[in-house]
Amino acid sequence: MAYKNTVRRNVAAGAGRSAGYPRALSRHARRFLLSRDRNAGLTVGEDGQTLIEMAVSLPIMFALIFCFMELCLAFYTYDMISEAAREGAQYAMVRGSNCTTNNSGASVPCTVTSTQVNTYVKNLSWPNIAGGTLTPATTYIQVAPNLAGNYAGNYVNVTVTYVFPMKMPLVPTKSWTLTSSSQMYIIQ
What residue segments make up the domains of the chain, in order of their start? Predict the structure, then answer.
């Protein structure tokens, strides 16, 4: 009889232990279901959050990208006009009043005036992507005594002014004036 009581107790103890697991699982399941129902209202209201954030941030991002592109175009344009000024000064420095070319034994003068230098600079085939207006101005600086103009020993100064049209949003000015000049010594 003592043996029967011991076995019964052990069996009952094992049955009691395993009987507690379904109760614990059902308690956790109820807690999980309640918490899911409690948070369900919050997640439904956040579904359009990314759409609102995108609608607010996308125009700002596009404005910054286009402003950056406009500034890159302004830097390109400044490089273009500074190269045009250098080209004009180089054109004038080798075509001073003493310049002559030798074609078939005949000596032909190759001198240029400031108007011809300005026309040369205007007709350079640099791409005008921005669509602004280019205005060159050529002056001769007298260094040699009693020789004013495009004589050897004097300097030629070519100044190029460019009106850059602005197309950036939220910028009050409609254009920038970019200026570059180049000065070279006349050698012929």
Answer: 81-185
